[in-house]
Amino acid sequence: MITTREVRYDVDGLTMVGHLACPDGEGPWPAVLIGHDGVGLEGYQRGRADQLAEHGYLAFAMDYHGGRTFFGDPEAMLARVMPLIDDPDRMQAIGRAALDVLLAVPGADRDRLGVLGYGAGGSIVLELARAGVPFQAVAIVHPGLPKARSEDWTNVTAPFLLCTGSEDPICSPDQVLAFTCALQDAGVDWRVNVYGGAEHAFWAAPNNPDGSLTGGTTHVNATVPGVGYHPAHAARAWRAVFDLFDETIGIPSVTA
User: What are the DSSP calls for 31-86, one per residue?
Assistant: First the structure.
């Protein structure tokens, strides 16, 4: 049986409230850091951390909003997120603080380290990879991509997985092409899954204002343009993430 707990830590002038999920038994365990979408750390990423722990991973879902979520308030979310993703130093500081929490857990295997980021959390993940954090696997789902410069990625040895929707206005086909060309020129092992008809945050099931699931497929809260739930592609992307971790840090793959 896995164990979970909140972990509070200070960075970026806020007290963050992350979610740690530990496998049953004794380590060392492969360790995975998770960066949440711009709306905040909510049930989806906590659940994914728990599922990773159920399959033998030590998983820590970081927080970068100080425990706050922005369901139904896209303007407040953008006011928090946009300055952050324009500041690589802040993103690195936030990501490193969360990584320190993960690696301080007894049993965390520093030699089997993976990372998974959604949306703005994917941007944080990319900054950590670009800064030289020795990940063995990097998975990003519908991120905002940085400027494509091959020299930024020459020291990256981890395989990359990018999952995005064909209709995502924030991660356009032109941006994906430019970014992957930069990875190719840098000698990075990369792969891209483009899900036909999927929009931004295609994994995000609609929520009520309190964050609970509506049970439907149409968002009832206000969102940024270009956001849409696609349950089939959400499951496919999750399987792809597990396939990457299976290949790189040694846990058998599972179905979504």
Answer: EEEEE--TT-S-HHHHHHHHHHHHTT-EEEE--SSTT---TT-HHHHHHHHHHHHT
Q: Please, which residues bridge with residue 63 across strands?
A: none
pLDDT of 253 higher than 60: no
Strands 14-22 and 3-11: antiparallel
Domain residue spans of the chain: 3-249
Percent of residues, the chain, with pLDDT higher than 70: 98
Chain position carrying tokens 């979408």: 37
Mean pLDDT across the chain? 93
Q: Look at the domain 3-249 and name its fold.
A: Rossmann fold (3.40.50)
- Distances from the Cα of 57 to the Cα of 29, 33, 50, 246, angstroms: 6, 10, 9, 11
